[in-house]
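Need tokens for this chain, all 193 residues.
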Amino acid sequence: MADSCDPFGEVRDVIRLLVVDDQELVRAGLRALVENTDDITVAGEARHGREALTQGRRLRPDLFLMDLKMPVMDGIAATAAIRTDPTLRDTPVLILTTFDDQDDVLGAVRAGATGYLLKDMEADALRAAVRTAAAGESPVTPSVAKQMMTQLARLSSRPNRSQELASLTDRERDILAHVGRGLSNEEIGRAFS
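Here are the structure tokens for all 193 residues:
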């Protein structure tokens, strides 16, 4: 983070963003939103993920503010590439998109996104989320958080493998062991006759 001075001469950290969106108007709007703050600045812009990687290596931002659906390289692929790039892997990626589809959310999280926001949020909430992500936390739009919690509950309600195996009879376990050894149904049948 870069330093700046407020009107009273105090030094403050400035969060340097790399705004990644294929729509010029969106990038300009985001730039205008942060120009009114003294602790966030736009260090650069990119039109797609591949350009974000190049700009990120050159500018070394504190945070990527990344759209999902873009040409050339989308936000999920770009986030995954950032996570594996030695010069960028520690830089948080905050997704800012119009898409709250469960597959998009899970894809972004799996790729290593720090947070997931929808573009319909208030300006103050976006600035707060940028500060939160830059501080190492994971801001998530409430509707997306609800989706994530529902998915987590669904996954945790499924029995785990040891519970499934424990519910098998001894004979079923023996049959399963024979299947694991590659025996055919006929060979398994002969083994139990």
